């Protein structure tokens, strides 16, 4: 699903050029659950942003489902993101002014889906995430765990091929963290590819494979022996 | 999607209530001012448009410059209309109006004074659209002594009974006038307002074929599509053809020679231009009209008000963009494209504008009666309910939404999603340059308007306090005292016994307001010199009016020959070339030779828009009475005079004016416009300050932590207030460099309309600068002070 070759990303300020990613090569197969790990500043989030088509690489190739997407314009990236990718963030990134239902509904609106179909899909996913009873609440009325479940609901409501999770348990206590990881695993088992950036060793064990980054380069790749070993 | 946008927009607006209130209030005031000014402008531009043939009707006026005297008269000679119809095929018809002052009308022993009375040609109602609602709809004025009256006048004269066929008598005429038609009131937006239109057929002078003298306001009906300017170019030929033969006799020189040194001509005004473009001097039009200058000035103010309010919206939206960054980021990540975001932000400005429009409509409803009182207009609220106006308001709402929300929408929607999610963009500092530029623009307008207001007020003050050459206080004018007939002297003597009366003069020549002054053609050594205004006075006039003789003597009853003598003003002495040696000189007019026995100090007998003209004062003690009161308690003197008037049992209605009031009336347009300017300038600066307050609030929020740290480190309140305020005050200061040169230029143009005027000096600008700075400082200082006096712990805990 994802093929990355010789990928570089540099940031230029007035005085200095910083190489955030340097010759990164790896691929993620369809249905895989991959974790990207590494110390702060190693380029994990930059890599995730490029995979999520929120940013373009400076050099190299990024193929998504066989198509080169590394040089696409913002409008084209937006179109490709819609329905194909779902995002889960550490800080949930729910829109404060929207209710739970409306937050989850938003990607479907951008897909120009009809109202009744939207309602059906949103309710289904909310029920699955066990948060349907809170559909009319606003984010600030929910606990962190509940907010992350809403965020996951929003990420999966379009049935994306790929879910990108950026430290999804970073702001959660361990009980809620486990719950979130179980949800992601469940989604993966149903066929959704997941790429997750994490600091947490425990969370990384949920993944099939761990890609370790250091100073913008992939230093090691390791296969986990058993999926969901910590469950 | 649209519904979703509106929903989110509404929630966002509610979430930032103070911002929403500031935006709505600012926009609401801007739109309300704009609407009121729009009503004013539409009303001004609608004058005479009620006529179905408005575009085909033109007015012929007379313009001349004879021996240096500029003549601008709205009325022309009797045969002009008829002649032009005969000479030019594009002139289909001509009709005339002749005013005769305030005639006395008698119906069954009941008498009325009617100043809204005019003689008109029989075809008048074919040219002007004033439908006959009762009586003869085709030719009501075909016969002499027939009249068409307004419905209100019909009710006043004849009560409930049918007015058609009813008779009334006009003072001095034996044959009664018969009502042959009734019309509705002449519309408010007409350049004339008569209630009684009498047939001109019975008026001998209307049949005159003299091209020298005449007082007929003449309107031509042109062929559809014909160019009045083209017709105007042919008019000199007409003058030559019809005036040429009589010139030698009238002026003593042949036409060719006369026109070598003097200018004579007709000009044509389209009917719809009369109200706004006519010359505003005494004889130029039937009623005091408007002025296109004020239409431009107030249209500009309306536009500026709206722009300032929109700028507030833009500035506050971009300044607080950081608050919206996360939302923009999430939406972009979830698949929103730029257009969708733009439409969402535009929805917010649409809702804010809609709320502002609702507020503005309420403000207009509430303030229109006050505005009407202030401006002397009769603007109607039902105007706002017309479908076309409602549609325009909706279009205006869209336009303002785009104007105010367009820039923020594009600005916010252009955030990069990652940066926006991480709040890694420069937030409030983004586009600070543009924001500063817009603040400068707002204060250029505000400071400019304050300067304009100060200049207008100073000029009005100057007019009120200028030495006008006589004492206008405590003067009661009984212009119609001649109605007392033989009893007038007895009345005067009786009134003189009243201890409240200082003196009385026998004259109706009044230097302000309605007057009996007239023009006389003056000859020196048998040669025509120029026309001059004439005052008819008695021996008490100069003392009663507080005027001053600079040479010679006053009229006196001791000199039997004073009826042939003349007193002239200083300007006349100069214009006639007498200089300081005027006494004893002979001048000639239609009444024969007159010896100059005195020179009176120049006094203003026209408005200060015009220079003092040369003036003759003759000893002709008739007409009205002017009473000088001993004290300023005019009301009790008026009551006493009224009682005395009634005691004389003349059956005439008592009428009076107070000279000071008439003087003020001369500048009523400027006074009204000045008052409106004061109000709109205040509103403009209020809206501009609202924006400044919003920006200051945002800055204080943004620098909340910094203020806390500075306070912990020992900064004083005044240091923090200075730190926060100085950036804004610098911008306000900068605006003066643009506002004042522009204001100076434009206000000088306005002052050019006055022959007697103030000069704009640096003190006025310093005053305007000070006022603007104080207002701006209070606005930003208040918020800065609040920020500076907060407990620093609050700021640091926030971390």
Salient structural properties:
heterodimer, A: 231 residues, alpha/beta, six-stranded mixed beta sheet, four-stranded antiparallel beta sheet, 7 helices, 28% strand, B: 799 residues, alpha+beta, 13-stranded mixed beta sheet, seven-stranded mixed beta sheet, 24 helices
What secondary-structure arrangement, pairings included, does this model have?
The complex is a heterodimer of chains A (231) and B (799).
Chain A: E1 2-12, E2 17-28, E3 33-37, H1 44-51, E4 59-64, E5 67-68, H2 74-81, E6 85-89, H3 100-110, H4 115-128, H5 144-156, E7 162-166, H6 174-189, E8 193-197, H7 201-204, E9 209-214, E10 217-223
Parallel strand pairs in A: 3-8, 3-9, 6-7, 7-8
Antiparallel strand pairs in A: 1-2, 1-4, 4-5, 9-10
Helix pairs in contact in A: 3-4, 3-5, 4-5, 5-6
Chain B: H1 2-15, H2 17-45, E1 57-66, E2 69-73, H3 80-87, E3 91-99, E4 104-107, E5 110-113, E6 117-120, H4 124-127, E7 132-135, E8 146-150, H5 151-158, E9 167-170, E10 177-183, E11 196-199, E12 217-222, H6 228-251, H7 255-261, E13 263-270, H8 274-277, H9 292-319, H10 321-333, H11 338-375, H12 387-413, H13 417-421, H14 432-465, E14 475-478, H15 488-496, E15 501-506, E16 518-524, E17 527-537, H16 541-545, E18 549-552, E19 565-569, H17 570-575, E20 586-589, E21 592-600, E22 616-619, E23 625-629, H18 634-647, E24 657-658, H19 659-666, H20 668-702, H21 704-712, H22 717-751, H23 762-788, H24 792-797
Parallel strand pairs in B: 6-11, 8-10, 17-22, 19-21
Antiparallel strand pairs in B: 1-2, 1-12, 1-13, 3-6, 3-12, 4-5, 4-9, 7-10, 8-11, 9-10, 14-23, 14-24, 15-23, 16-17, 18-21, 19-22, 20-21
**What is the chains' assembly state?**
heterodimer
Largest interface, with counts of residues having CB < 8 Å to the other chain, equals:
A-B, 27 and 23 residues
- Fraction in beta strands of chain B: 15-25%
Shape of chain B: elongated
Structure description:
- The complex is a heterodimer of chains A (231) and B (799).
- Chain A is built from seven helices and ten strands.
- Chain A is α/β, with parallel strands linked by helices and 231 residues long.
- In chain A, helix 3 packs parallel to helix 5 (144-156) and helix 5 (144-156) packs parallel to helix 6 (174-189).
- Chain A is globular, with a radius of gyration of 17 Å.
- In chain B, the strands form three sheets. In chain B, strands 1, 2, 3, 4, 5, 6, 7, 8, 9, 10, 11, 12 and 13 form a 13-stranded mixed beta sheet that branches. In chain B, strands 16, 17, 18, 19, 20, 21 and 22 form a seven-stranded mixed beta sheet that branches. A four-stranded antiparallel beta sheet of chain B has the order 15-23-14-24.
- The chains are: A alpha/beta (231), B alpha+beta (799).
């Amino acid at each position: 699903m994802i093929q990355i070759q010789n990928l570089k990303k540099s940031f230029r300020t007035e005085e200095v050029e910083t190489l955030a990613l340097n010759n990164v090569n790896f691929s993620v197969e369809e249905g895989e659950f991959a974790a990207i790990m590494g110390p702060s500043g190693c380029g994990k989030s930059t890599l995730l942003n490029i995979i999520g088509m929120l940013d373009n690489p400076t050099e190299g190739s990024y193929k998504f489902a066989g198509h080169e997407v590394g040089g696409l314009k913002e409008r084209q990236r937006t179109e490709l993101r819609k329905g194909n990718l779902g995002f889960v963030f550490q800080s949930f990134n729910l829109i404060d002014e929207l209710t739970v239902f409306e937050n989850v509904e938003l990607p479907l609106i951008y897909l120009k889906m009809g109202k009744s179909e939207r309602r059906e899909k949103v309710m289904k996913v909310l029920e699955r995430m066990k948060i349907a009873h809170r559909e009319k609440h606003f984010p600030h009325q929910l606990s962190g765990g509940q907010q992350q479940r809403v965020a996951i609901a929003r990420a999966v409501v379009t049935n994306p091929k790929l879910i990108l999770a950026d430290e999804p348990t970073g702001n959660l206590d361990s009980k809620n963290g486990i719950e979130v990881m179980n949800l992601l695993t469940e989604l993966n088992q149903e066929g959704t590819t997941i790429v997750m950036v994490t600091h947490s060793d425990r969370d990384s064990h949920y993944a099939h494979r761990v890609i370790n980054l250091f100073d913008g380069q992939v230093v090691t790749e390791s296969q986990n022996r058993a999926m969901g070993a910590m469950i | 999607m649209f519904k979703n946008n509106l929903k989110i927009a509404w929630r966002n607006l509610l979430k930032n209530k103070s911002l929403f209130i500031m935006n709505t209030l600012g926009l609401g005031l801007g739109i309300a001012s704009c609407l009121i000014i729009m009503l004013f402008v539409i009303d001004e531009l609608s004058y005479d448009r009620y006529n179905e043939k408005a575009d085909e009707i033109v007015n012929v006026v007379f313009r001349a410059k004879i021996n240096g005297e500029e003549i601008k008269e709205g009325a022309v000679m009797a045969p002009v209309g008829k002649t032009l119809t005969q000479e030019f095929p594009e002139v289909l018809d001509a009709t005339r109006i002749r005013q005769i002052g305030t005639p006395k009308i008698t119906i069954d022993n009941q008498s009325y004074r009617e100043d809204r009375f005019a003689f008109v040609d029989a075809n008048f109602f074919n040219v002007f659209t004033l439908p006959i609602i009762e009586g003869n709809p085709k030719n009501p004025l075909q016969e002499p002594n027939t009249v068409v009256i307004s419905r209100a006048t019909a009710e006043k004269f004849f009560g409930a009974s049918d007015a058609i066929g009813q008779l009334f008598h006009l003072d001095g005429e034996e044959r009664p006038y018969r009502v042959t038609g009734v019309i509705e009131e002449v519309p408010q937006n007409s350049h004339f307002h008569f209630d009684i239109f009498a047939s001109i057929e019975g008026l001998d002078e209307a049949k005159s074929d003299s091209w020298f003298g005449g007082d007929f306001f003449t309107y031509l009906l042109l062929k559809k599509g014909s160019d009045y300017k083209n017709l105007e170019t042919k008019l000199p030929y007409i003058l030559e053809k019809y005036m040429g033969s009589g010139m030698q006799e009238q002026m003593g020189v042949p036409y060719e020679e006369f026109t070598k040194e003097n200018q004579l001509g007709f000009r044509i005004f389209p009917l719809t231009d009369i109200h706004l473009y006519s010359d505003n001097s005494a004889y130029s039009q039937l009623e005091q009209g408007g002025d296109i200058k004020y239409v431009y000035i107030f249209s500009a103010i309306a536009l500026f008000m709206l722009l300032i309010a929109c700028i507030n919206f833009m500035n506050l939206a971009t300044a607080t963009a950081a608050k919206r960054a996360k939302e923009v980021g999430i939406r972009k990540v979830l698949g929103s494209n730029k257009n969708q975001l733009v439409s969402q932000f535009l929805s917010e400005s649409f809702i804010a504008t809609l709320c502002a429009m609702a507020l503005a409509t309420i403000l207009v409803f509430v303030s229109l009666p006050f505005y009407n009182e202030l401006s002397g207009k009769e603007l109607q609220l039902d105007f706002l309910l017309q479908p076309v106006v409602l549609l325009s308001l909706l279009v205006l709402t869209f336009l303002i939404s785009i104007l105010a929300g367009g820039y923020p929408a594009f600005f916010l929607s252009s955030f990069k999603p990652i940066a926006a999610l991480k709040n890694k963009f420069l937030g409030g500092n983004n586009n600070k340059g543009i924001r500063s530029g817009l603040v400068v623009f707002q204060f250029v307008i505000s400071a400019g308007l304050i300067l304009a207001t100060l200049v207008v007020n100073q000029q009005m003050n100057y007019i009120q306090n200028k030495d006008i050459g006589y004492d206008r206080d405590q003067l009661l004018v009984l212009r119609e005292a001649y109605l007392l007939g033989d009893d007038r002297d007895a009345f005067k003597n009786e009134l003189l016994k009243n201890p409240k009366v200082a003196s009385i003069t026998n004259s109706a020549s009044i230097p302000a307001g309605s007057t009996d002054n007239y023009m006389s053609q003056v000859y020196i050594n048998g040669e025509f010199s120029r026309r001059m205004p004439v005052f008819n006075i008695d021996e008490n006039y100069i003392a009663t009016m507080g005027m001053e003789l600079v040479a010679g003597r006053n009229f006196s009853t001791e000199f039997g020959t004073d009826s042939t003598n003349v007193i002239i003003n200083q300007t006349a002495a100069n214009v006639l070339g007498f200089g300081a040696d005027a006494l004893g000189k002979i001048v000639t007019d239609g009444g024969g030779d007159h010896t100059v026995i005195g020179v009176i100090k120049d006094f203003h007998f026209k408005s200060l828009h015009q220079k003092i003209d040369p003036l003759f004062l003759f000893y002709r003690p008739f007409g009205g009475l002017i009473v000088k009161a001993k004290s300023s308690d005019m009301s009790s003197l008026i009551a006493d005079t009224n009682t005395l008037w009634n005691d004389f049992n003349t059956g005439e209605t008592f009428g009076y004016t107070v000279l000071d009031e008439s003087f003020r009336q001369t500048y009523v347009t400027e006074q009204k416009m000045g008052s409106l300017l004061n109000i709109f300038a205040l509103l403009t600066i209020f809206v501009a300050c609202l924006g400044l307050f919003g920006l200051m609030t945002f800055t204080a929020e943004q620098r909340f932590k910094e203020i806390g740290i500075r306070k912990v480190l020992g900064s004083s309140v005044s240091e923090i207030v200075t730190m926060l305020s100085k950036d804004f005050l610098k911008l306000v200061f900068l605006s003066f460099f643009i506002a004042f040169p522009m204001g100076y230029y434009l206000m000088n143009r306005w002052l050019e309309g006055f022959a007697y005027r103030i000069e704009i000096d640096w003190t006025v600008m310093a005053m305007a600068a000070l006022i603007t700075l104080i207002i701006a400082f209070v606005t930003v200082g208040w918020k800065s002070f609040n920020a500076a006096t907060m407990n620093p712990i609050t700021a640091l805990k926030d971390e």
